[in-house]
Amino acid sequence: MRTFSVFWLVRILMFIAVGQLLDCTAIEPFDCSNIKVGKMIFNLSTLNREWNQSIIEKQSKGVMNTTYRINICEPLSYNETLGKNNTCEDGTNICAITTFKSYDSDGDPMIIDVKQIVKNSNFQPISIFSEVNREILFNTTETLEVKLGGGEYLDEKQKANITFFLGQPVDLDPDVVDYKNNTLLIEWKIRATGNDESQGDGSWSLFSIFLFLIFIGFLGYLVIGVAYNYHTYNSHGWDLLPHRFVNKITLIGWFVFETELLLNI
Ligand SMILES: *[C@@H]1O[C@H](CO)[C@@H](O)[C@H](O)[C@H]1NC(C)=O
Ligand SMILES: *[C@@H]1O[C@H](CO)[C@@H](O)[C@H](O)[C@H]1NC(C)=O
Ligand SMILES: *[C@@H]1O[C@H](CO)[C@@H](O)[C@H](O)[C@H]1NC(C)=O
Ligand SMILES: *[C@@H]1O[C@H](CO)[C@@H](O)[C@H](O)[C@H]1NC(C)=O
Ligand SMILES: *[C@@H]1O[C@H](CO)[C@@H](O)[C@H](O)[C@H]1NC(C)=O
Ligand SMILES: *[C@@H]1O[C@H](CO)[C@@H](O)[C@H](O)[C@H]1NC(C)=O
Ligand SMILES: *[C@@H]1O[C@H](CO)[C@@H](O)[C@H](O)[C@H]1NC(C)=O
Ligand SMILES: *[C@@H]1O[C@H](CO)[C@@H](O)[C@H](O)[C@H]1NC(C)=O
Questions:
Q1: Residues 192 and 211 in one domain
Q2: Which of 166, 181, 196 is the last residue of a domain?
Q3: Domain count for the chain
Q4: Contact 141 CB / ligand 1 (< 6 Å)
Q5: H helical segments located in the chain
Q6: Bridge-partner residues for 95, per DSSP?
Q7: Looking at the structure, do residues 70 and 192 belong to the same domain, yes or no?
Q8: Residue 44's Cα: distance from chain center in Å?
Q9: Per-residue pLDDT tens for 79-136?
């Protein structure tokens, strides 16, 4: 009976240990539905579509049109037939395409510039949540700043610094404020707000710390048991294990169940 309960205790402990391990060691790519800043979690998945803004500039010879295409959640749609030079690379999240149409031409606007600004690749995003009081300007007290990157333009690394104004009545269009120093500044009023995950979390971590200590204690018991058996009885192999709580069947069962557990996660 004792063996049985130790077996289950170890199973539960392993489950928690694996869960905690996955939680803190994973370096995840940017996930717009799960942005963590301290204890806050933001789900911006309602922004998962293509947004665009065109900035028109009249010049002496024609019109320059810079279109910013934005989807922070998934790569923008990619049209292979347009050719590499005429559209953003496959996998781009934010890019800018500039066309020029001269006043005395009837043809299509000419593509004169393509910038990949954000590619959800190996850039480690930076997120900052602040409760700066901006009530007067934006009717909100909370902002979320997200800095993304991964794109390159003329061999210079590009970044986008997006400031979200949270808790608006609807998701508005993003507003491209500026592009300077290889950084695109975007302000975006959105509906989403953060969820504070800290409630309930504290008691859970205390509980896991408690179980973790028991787990360490059990490991210590194994190690001391092995050392004791080695020195006292000069045992080898399976006989090294403390017999009172652990036997072959328990261990084999344990590994089988742990493997099954890992595969299920
Ligand atoms: C984010 O919100 C969407 C619906 O708006 C929901 O389907 C999705 O499961 C949420 N994702 C997370 C990670 O909470
Ligand atoms: C701009 O976004 C709309 C959807 O909001 C999309 O239908 C359109 O194709 C986009 N325009 C460009 C130039 O990508
Ligand atoms: C600017 O370019 C975009 C994308 O090609 C296009 O949808 C939009 O109509 C253009 N605007 C003007 C004023 O030409
Ligand atoms: C891709 O671009 C070509 C050339 O402009 C156009 O004819 C075609 O319709 C586009 N395909 C899609 C799926 O948008
Ligand atoms: C793309 O542009 C580069 C240089 O700007 C040129 O060498 C290359 O031939 C172009 N490729 C296509 C498919 O137009
Ligand atoms: C701010 O909120 C008030 C009431 O909640 C509303 O009347 C006003 O139009 C809002 N201002 C802006 C800029 O959204
Ligand atoms: C983003 O831009 C704002 C100004 O619009 C600046 O205050 C802030 O420090 C920038 N954030 C990052 C992470 O660079
Ligand atoms: C430009 O950006 C770099 C880092 O991205 C920063 O060190 C530098 O101070 C910025 N320069 C200006 C003028 O903002």
A1: no
A2: 196
A3: 2
A4: no
A5: 2-25, 135-138, 201-233, 248-264
A6: 69, 116
A7: yes
A8: 12
A9: 888 877 888 888 899 999 999 999 999 999 999 999 999 987 666 677 777 665 545 5
Domain match, 96 and 12 both: no
What are the pocket residues of ligand 5 if the criterion is a CB atom closer than 6 Å to any ligand atom?
Answer: 83-85
Domain boundary, last residue among 196, 217, 251? 196
Q: What is the pTM of this model?
A: 0.70
CA of 169 to the centre of ligand 7 (A): 24
Q: 147, exposed or middle or buried, with CB in 10 Å at 0-12, 13-18, 19+?
A: middle
Interval between CA 64 and ligand 3 midpoint (Å): 10
Ligand that comes closest to the CA of residue 69? 2
Q: What is the residue range of 149's domain?
A: 40-196
- Considering every ligand atom shown, identify the ligand nearest to the alpha carbon of residue 164 and give its number: 7
173 CB within 6 A, ligand 2: no
Q: Quick one: 84 and 189 in the same domain?
A: yes
| Each residue's pLDDT tens digit, 15-73 | 666 655 555 444 567 889 988 888 888 999 999 999 999 999 999 999 999 999 999 99
Q: Say which residues have a Cβ less than 8 Å from residue 58's Cβ, sequence separation at least 6.
A: 64
Cα(45) to ligand 1 centroid in Å equals 6
